[in-house]
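HD-GYP domain-containing protein
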Amino acid sequence: MFFQKGEKLEEDLYSNSGVLLLRKGTFLTERLAAILNKYEVIRDPELDGRRIATEVPGIFHDLLYENIYREMEELQRVIQMKTTLYDAEVESMERNFRKLYKEVFATRTSILELMEHFSADEYLFKHCIHVGLIAANIGKILKLHPEKQSLLAQMGLFHDIGKFTIDPQILNKPGRLTDEEFALIKKHPEAGYRLLEKTSLDPMILKGVLMHHERLDGSGYPDGRKTIPFLVRILSVADTFDAICSNRAYRRRQPVFFAIDELMADADAGRLDREIVLPFANFLMENYWKQPITLRNGIKGSIIRIHPLHPNQPVLKSKGTRF
C-alpha cells in the first residue's frame, strides 16, 4: 500500500516484532509517509492491525525515531513558555522511547550503524536519543540488571533537556563561543533539573540531568563534585562518546578510534571511570576486528590483536607487516 501526506491511519501499525509504532487515527506528515513507503506493510489479524512485513538487518526503525523526534520538537516549544514540566508533558516521549529502546535491543541493531544512519539529523534531539541507547548498551556490556539498563536509557533521553531552554543560535553557533555564552551553556544541567523536579521521573534520571558533566577528579560542572553515582558515570561516558562522534555546528564528527583515544585519556587522567571506559572501548574495538581500516597516513591494514587494557593501541597488519 502507498501512504500520503495528510492521510489518517485506519488501523494501528506495528513493527515486524510486534511493537506498536503508530496508533489508528494518526495523521501522516510528509516525512512519516516517506518512511512508511520504504517498507512493505501487510495486514496482521493477530495484531488487529497492520505491521511492517520484514526486518531490515542493521537498519533502525525510522518510524519510532521519528515519533520521538517530533515529540522533542513539541517539548522544546512547551519549554519556551514554561519553567517547570509535569508528567503529562513528558510521559508520551518517555513511553515511545521505551519502545524504541526495546526495538533496538530486540533486533540487535548496531549502535554504530544507528549513529551513522541518523548522522545528518539535528544534533540536540539526535544526541539525546543516542546517548540513551549508548548508555543502556554500556549497561548491557557491564551485565547490569535489565531494569538498570532501561533506567540508563531514560537517563540519556532526558540528560540534556536543560539545553532546550538555551537560544538555538548559541547552541548552533559555528564559531567560538564567548565567555558569556559558554557560561550560559554550562547552566543547562541546573536548568534541566528545575524543569523536571516536579515530575515523578526516577530520582536517578534527575541526578543524571544535574551531574552528567561532573568528573571524578572534580574538574566538571556545575558543582565540581568528585562523588558521582555509578549510573551517572556510565551516562557521562555515553555522552562524551556520542558528542565526539557527532557532527556539531563548530566541527565535523570524529572517527570512533579518536573517540576511544579520548575516552581512554579521560580515564587515565581520572576524569572518567576506567572500569566503565575499558569494557566499552573493548566492545567498540571488537566491531573492527579483522576489518579493513585506513590509517591517518593512508596505509590500509586490519586489526589482528586488541590488548584488553589498552584497546586504543591495537596491533595492525598491513601487507604482511605488523605495527
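thats it. The CA atoms of residues 159 and 323 lie 40 Å apart. The mean pLDDT is 86. bye
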